[in-house]
Amino acid sequence: MKPNYKEPKFNAPHRVSPQQRQELESQIDKLLKANIVKPVVSKFAAPAFLVKKKEIGSGLISFSSILHKELNDRVECDQYPLPRTADLFRALEGSKYFSSLDLNSGYFQISVEEKDQYKLAFTSALGLLTFTRLPQGFKNSSAIFQRELNKSFSHILYKSIIIYIDDLVSYGSNFDQAIINLRVAFEIIDKTNFSLKTKKCNFFLR
């Protein structure tokens, strides 16, 4: 947190229709059962709202940048850099086979330290809850996630895999090498307990 930060203001839950309330409760219940959120006592309280999700036509719990401003304004900015596009493409030069790997609910695969969880609290029809996993809408989420993945894949980064936040590409100059490189990536994913959204992964593209 920034030095001498001001206490956050309380934000009441948004007014929602009965249908929206039912959907919101359903989404929160799923997060509770997955231990992604939990009840909390906190001075922070960002209103939760529904955002339509194209792939399933339903909603998800999220924060808008304005409503989450209470926390983002009080937190020091994590300056960990995202990779430059030019560096990503340069790493792929000479490769002929590519496998794109999409991490399942990427940010949610990173745990938030218990001492910091109260800062991510949000209000809803089900009361005051907080995230135990890294959420979208927090200004440092991308930097934290990129750092964690770069650390996990450090010995093969820019050698056989490139990473941009939750999108990974394993590559090789020929088919046999591409298989070997992908196997190494899978071993790291398994060891670090990351999981993939298989329906959004593509293998050995040319």
UniProtKB/TrEMBL annotation:
<dbReference type="InterPro" id="IPR000477">
    <property type="entry name" value="RT_dom"/>
</dbReference>
<dbReference type="InterPro" id="IPR043502">
    <property type="entry name" value="DNA/RNA_pol_sf"/>
</dbReference>
<dbReference type="Pfam" id="PF00078">
    <property type="entry name" value="RVT_1"/>
</dbReference>
<feature type="domain" description="Reverse transcriptase">
    <location>
        <begin position="1"/>
        <end position="206"/>
    </location>
</feature>
<protein>
    <recommendedName>
        <fullName>Reverse transcriptase domain-containing protein</fullName>
    </recommendedName>
</protein>
<dbReference type="InterPro" id="IPR053134">
    <property type="entry name" value="RNA-dir_DNA_polymerase"/>
</dbReference>
<dbReference type="InterPro" id="IPR043128">
    <property type="entry name" value="Rev_trsase/Diguanyl_cyclase"/>
</dbReference>
<dbReference type="GO" id="GO:0071897">
    <property type="term" value="P:DNA biosynthetic process"/>
</dbReference>
